[in-house]
Write a structure and sequence with these properties.
alpha/beta
C-alpha cells in the first residue's frame, strides 16, 4: 500500500515523526507522498526526503488556501525549486472556495500557472478542490497547452462530477478516511470511478478513518481505508492494494521496493 497524500512533515508530528514512519512501515505502507503547501513547508518536505530518501517523495506547489495578494511573488520564488528538489508532482494546487471566495480569481490564475509547470516539466498534478470544481474545470478548459495528468485528491463529488472530470482527461481520484464515515457518499462513487483510477491516501493529520475517527490521522491508517474499499467493491484487500500501487506508479513514476 502507498499513501499518496500525507502531511506527516507538519508540526503535528514534530514530537514523534520517526515513530509515525515506523508504524506506517509495520502497517504495510511501502511509500508516502508528501504534498507541499507553501514556501514555509518546502524545507520540512526536503528534510524528510533527505531523512527517508527511499520511503518518501515530495511535491512542490502552492495550496489554494495560501494564495493571497503576493501569490505571483511566491510562485516566482517556488519555480526555481523545481530544479533544486526531486519532486514527483506539482501540488497540492487547486481551488478552495469553502470558507472564503475573496481570492477566487487569484486561485484560478495560480492554478493555470502551475498546470503549465506540469506541462513544461512532464509532471502530474495533485488537485485540492473544495467547492471549486466548476472553476477548476474552467481553468483546464482554457489551458493553452495539453492537459497534464493528475489526481483529484480527497474526492467527494458526485457521479456526474466524475464524468465531467473524466471528459477532460484520464485522471485519478484520491480516496481517504472519508470513505469510512457513516454518512459518506464516497462508497457509492467507488464503482463509478473504478479500481483502475483509485489512489489510497490519508491526508494526515486530518480525516482519520473509522475506527480512529476524531484522532490525529497518520499513514499507518491506510489499511483501514484499503480494507473498506475492498469490502465496498467486493474484492480482496490484496486486489485493492495491488491496483492502487500500480496506479501510483503509473501516475507518479514511483516504483517502491
Amino acid at each position: 500500500m502507498i499513501d499518496s497524500h500525507s502531511h506527516i512533515y507538519c508540526d503535528a508530528f514534530d514530537e514523534d515523526r520517526e515513530a509515525v514512519v515506523e508504524r506506517a512501515r509495520k502497517a504495510g505502507v511501502r511509500h508516502i507522498i508528501l504534498p507541499n503547501e507553501n514556501l514555509a513547508s518546502v524545507p520540512r518536505l526536503a528534510a524528510m526526503r533527505e531523512r527517508y530518501p527511499d520511503y518518501v517523495s515530495m511535491t512542490l506547489g502552492l495550496h489554494p488556501e495560501d494564495v493571497h495578494d503576493d501569490y505571483l511573488d511566491v510562485l516566482d520564488q517556488m519555480r526555481p525549486m523545481l530544479d533544486e528538489y526531486p519532486v514527483v508532482a506539482i501540488g497540492e494546487i487547486g481551488i478552495d472556495l469553502y470558507w472564503d471566495k475573496t481570492w477566487r480569481e487569484q486561485q484560478s490564475h495560480a492554478l493555470d500557472i502551475q498546470l503549465h509547470w506540469c506541462h513544461e516539466r512532464d509532471l502530474p498534478f495533485i488537485i485540492h478542490c473544495r467547492d471549486g470544481l466548476d472553476d477548476i474545470l474552467q481553468v483546464i478548459d482554457h489551458l493553452d497547452c495539453p492537459v497534464p495528468r493528475g489526481v483529484f485528491h480527497s474526492f467527494t463529488g458526485t457521479p456526474d462530477d466524475v464524468k465531467r472530470i473524466r471528459e477532460r482527461g484520464d485522471f485519478y481520484f484520491g480516496v481517504n478516511g472519508i470513505v469510512t464515515f457513516k454518512k459518506s457518499t464516497v462508497p457509492e462513487l467507488l464503482p463509478v470511478i473504478g479500481l483502475d483510477r483509485l489512489l489510497l491516501e490519508t491526508d494526515s493529520p486530518y480525516l482519520s478513518p473509522v475506527p480512529n475517527r476524531g484522532k490525529r490521522n497518520e499513514s499507518s491508517n491506510i489499511p483501514h481505508i484499503n480494507n473498506f474499499i475492498a469490502k465496498a467493491l467486493d474484492v480482496t484487500p490484496e486486489e485493492v492494494s495491488a491496483a492502487t500501487d500500480r496506479n501510483v506508479s503509473a501516475l507518479f513514476g514511483i516504483s517502491p521496493a
